[in-house]
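Reviewers of the previous submission asked for a worked example of the structure-prediction workflow described in the proposal, so we include one complete record here. The input consisted solely of the amino acid sequence. No template or homolog information was supplied to the procedure at any stage.
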Amino acid sequence: MIFIKTVLITGASRGIGAKTAQAFAEEGYSVIINYNKSEKQAKALADELSKKYNTNCAPYKCDVSDSRAVAEMFEKVGFVDALVNNAGISEQKLFTDITDDDWRKMTAVNLDGVFYCCREALKGMIKRKSGSIINISSMWGEVGASCEVHYSASKSAVIGLTKALAKETALSNIRVNCIAPGVIATDMMKGFDEKTLKALAEETPLQRLGAPEDVANTAVFLASERAGFITGQVISVNGGFVI
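From that input alone, the workflow returned the following structure tokens.
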């Protein structure tokens, strides 16, 4: 009997999330494509991947910063073999200009959302004594970024959550790891002009910006049995930008 694994990917309608959904579908997973606002893109992606890879890909609308909505999503989805916490937002502001609302919004999506999804996914994983959780942080969560203090703080907290949770769930055969991407060519980079993007590429030792596929392929590896002895780790997919 062939068992088909299921992965739930948050913020999967575009960018890194969409490429991660594609990478898991290619590996034969059933893919739950979580989205909040990008309904059209999520549905189109689900249809495309289902047909192309002959697997079940389904969109699911849920604001991950809403704990009740997250609980309802997992009740309907059921057990997942893998969870990729990819949903996130960013913002550039001087620290002294960050408002209470800015701070709360950033941590609600980037940190609370990870907490809520991990908590719900673990209910089934602990019962089955198996599962893999991959949290998407950022290199700025490792070293901090000027004018992105609230973003850096939220992503740093994700790293701390990952390490602590990995220790707590290891006896249940559940692995929890983190990916810290560098400068990746996604919609988040649309606010940067060509000169700035070129400078960022030149500052990266591998002399290019990262692609969403670079992160997606790492996530698939971490969820696989090939990474069966890896837990509590931060994998820096940044082209050498931070070493």
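The chain has one domain: 6-236. We consider this example representative of the routine output the project will generate in years two and three.
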